[in-house]
Structure formats: structure tokens, C-alpha cells
Amino acid sequence: MIKKCLFPVAGYGTRFLPATKSMPKEMLPIVNKPLVQYGVEEAIDAGLREIAFVTGRGKRSIADHFDISYELEHQISGTGKEKYLSSIRSVLDKGTFSLTRQREMKGLGHAILTGEVLIGNEPFGVILSDDLCMNEGGEGVMAQMVRLFKQFRCSIVAVQEVPMDQIEKYGVIAGESLKDGLYRVDNMVEKPKAADAPSNLAIIGRYILTPDIFDILRDTPPGKNGEVQITDALLTQARNGCVMAYKFAGRRFDCGSVDGFVEATNYVYENIYTPE
């Protein structure tokens, strides 16, 4: 029912300079796999096999990663090193990949609107690669959300409880609790001060959006920091219809920060990575 997943990957990654001066932050490795590949695998495992990237200047290596490297594969064909390509070969076999460019950085809402040409008039997932989500032994976060979408047929955002001293880093929701971990959103604020936050439920980088979001985004004026905020558009959608918030099962690492990136690397190395 949902076939496509959008990856906004046009950001500059300034918190990882100078490494990101010539290398996309999404290609930084968590042990031996680029950050963006974890997100793509999560989407594919959820049945979202049409992968759409909204890229920018200096991001060509993302497109190259999700393609065949004939010279490399020829050089290691038949050797023991060939096994190191098994995970990306599996992704290439299962998914299809397209991209468009965001010429100006005008916020996440603008990036999603830029991806309309790749999505069309159908519901779709959105994964922000900065948020690495793990649920060992269980469904990935996007798969959990797809199951909910089949039931509710409306936009869904993933949320988690965060300490109030960190709340102004996030979009924050408030709403009616329908059952444990599921809320019908009636308010949504982008990066509020702790005193103004409607709750401690912060939106993280997983969304399922219905296609009417594109028309709403077109009519959404710049908000916080002069950018088009997806939270503003989702609040309009919630007031005119329905948006659900889901407290997902699993663990999330903020790989947009150096501390979170190091924490994720240590976690994957200790719990998931298997040395050959």
C-alpha cells in the first residue's frame, strides 16, 4: 500500500566539519556501513522499495553508493573480499533508486516538497538518516508505522520522550492518548522553549505522510529560523483532518551529533557487527 520512501539528504552536515567538507554526512560509516544505508534497509524491510533521495551539491557519492561499481566488483570478484559487498548487493537487488536536487536549503518542509516530483499522489514514508533506529529482534520503526497506517490511513509521526532540557532541539506534539503509545495530535510546536513545550514527546526522523501534505506545504509560510517547517504543515493537517503520533519500539541514536554518532558506532560494534 505504501511503496515509496523519501530521504532528504541535502544538508551540509556542519557539525561534522571538516569531515563533511567533501563527504556527505549520510555517508559517514557506522562501523563498516554508511549511515544512509541503515535507513534504506529499514525502508526496504518495511516494504518501501522505491527509494527517493532529495540531494544537493556535493552529494554524488550517495547516488554512486546505490549503484554497481563495475571496476571494484571486477577487482575483488572470486576473492574473499567479495563477501563485504553482500549487504549493499542485497539492497540493490530489492530496491529502486531515484533522486532530485534541492537547490536551496529552506528547511525539512521544503525538502519534502521538493521530493513531490519523485513521490506523486500517494502516501509515502520519510526517513531522516541522522536518526539511526534499532530494534533488535523486532520490527524496524518504519515497519511498525506502516502497520499503523494500514489501520488509520492518515499521516503518522514517530515520537519519543526526551528530557525537558533537550526539548528545544525538536518538534514537540501534544494530543489525545488513544492507547498506550498512540496519540491523536492536536498541537505541534517546532523547537519550543521548555516552558512553552506542550509535552515531552519529541518528533524523531520517521514519518508517514499522505499526499495532501504537498498542497499544505505549498501554502505554509516560513516559520522557525525562516525555514518551511514540516511541523507547521502537519499541524494544519491535524486541525483539518488527522495526524497520529506513535511512540515506537526500539532505540534511537541522534547521529546528527558527534556524541550520538559515537554512541551508535559503539552500540553497533558491540551488538550487531560481526567481524569476518
**What coarse outline follows from CA principal-axis ratios?**
globular
Q: Return the CATH topology.
A: Spore Coat Polysaccharide Biosynthesis Protein SpsA, Chain A
Alpha carbon gap, first and last residue: 38 Å
Strand order of the largest sheet: 8-11-9-10-12
| Topology as a string of helices (H) and strands (E) | EEEHEHHHEHHEEHEEEEHHEEH
Instruction: Report the structural category.
Output: alpha/beta
- Poorly predicted runs of 5 or more residues: none
Can you count the helices? Answer: 10
The radius of gyration over CA amounts to: 18 Å
CATH class: Alpha Beta
Q: How many domains in all?
A: 1
State the fourth-level CATH superfamily.
Answer: Spore Coat Polysaccharide Biosynthesis Protein SpsA, Chain A
Number of strands: 13
Question: How would you sum up this structure, described in words?
Answer:
The chain is an alpha/beta fold. The protein has one domain (4-271): Spore Coat Polysaccharide Biosynthesis Protein SpsA, Chain A (Alpha-Beta Complex). Helix content is 32%, strand content 26%. It is built from ten helices and 13 strands. A hairpin with a 2-residue loop joins strand 9 (171-179) and strand 10. The chain is globular and about 60 Å long. The mean pLDDT is 92.
State the gist of this model.
By secondary structure, the protein is α/β, with parallel strands linked by helices. It has a single domain, classed as Spore Coat Polysaccharide Biosynthesis Protein SpsA, Chain A (Alpha-Beta Complex). It has helices spanning 35-45, 60-65, 70-76, 86-94, 108-114, 116-119, 141-152, 213-218, 230-240, 258-271, and strands spanning 4-8, 29-30, 33-34, 50-55, 96-101, 124-127, 131-134, 155-161, 171-179, 182-190, 201-209, 243-247, 251-254.
